[in-house]
Amino acid sequence: MQIQPLWLRITHWLNAFAVLIMVTSGWQIYNASPIFRSIVFPSAITLGGWLGGALQWHFAAMWLLVANFIVYVAMNVFTGRLRRRMFPLSIRSIVTDAFAALRGKLGHDDLTHYNAVQKFAYLAVIVDIVIVILSGLAVWKSVQFPLLRTLMGGYDEARVVHFFGMSFLVAFFVVHVVMVALVPRSLVMMIRGR
Ligand code: HEM
Fold it and tell me: Mean pLDDT per segment of 10 residues, for the chain of length 194 residues?
């Protein structure tokens, strides 16, 4: 039986690829004008070589990120998959599953269902990507989107929102990859579909 449909696998891996390019080129762009003096990213983990090069990568990959993300969310909503796989979800179930996971008592026998912590993490990263896209738009076209800029608290604040959105995305990425490494069968499913 197919568990991860083809459209999900394609959009998931395109998203991972786009995020990787956006984050590493974003770090290079950040380095040209750091928000926090103590935070500078080593050039070995940045993309683009210099500010101009990194902007090219960032602006190229942003189209892929946004278009692919719209397809991912739209397909999830219209096929009913979002409702089936991410809900129902309650704070109580998240707490229960989180404690069970910490005690090593959360089973992985049924990979057709996400546990409550997974559901919460996936929904959180989806919301986070929306925030990253909107704050990025406010930084990129701050004159054309004054309302968006104001909602972010201003241009400088939009940069801060963008930075923390990136930080959450990277934190998710690290935990996500560790979790996948703990349950390698899930990776096979995300590649082959079953
Ligand atoms: C920042 C980049 C990434 C993001 C934002 C992301 C996000 C997600 C989301 C939202 C889901 C749930 C998909 C759904 O059911 O609709 C998911 C599932 C999954 N992701 Fe990622 N992902 C990223 C990178 C990766 C990488 C690098 C790997 C491989 C090491 C990976 C492996 C998986 C696997 C195996 C699943 C299925 C989990 C399961 O069935 O239990 N992801 N990812």
Answer: 92 98 98 97 98 98 98 98 96 96 86 94 98 98 97 97 98 97 95 94
With the most atoms of ligand 1 within 8 angstroms of its CB, the residue from 12, 123, 187 to mutate is 12
Q: How far apart are CA 77 and CA 70, in angstroms?
A: 11
Atom of ligand 1 minimally distant from the CA of 85: 15
Decide yes or no: CATH 1.20.950.20 for domain 6-192: yes
pTM above 0.85, yes or no: yes
Provide the residue ranges of all domains of the chain, joining segments of one domain with +: 6-192
**CB-ligand 1 contact for 73 (6 Å cutoff):** no
Query: What is the secondary structure of 11-44 as a DSSP string?
Result: HHHHHHHHHHHHHHHHHHHHHHS-SSTT----GG
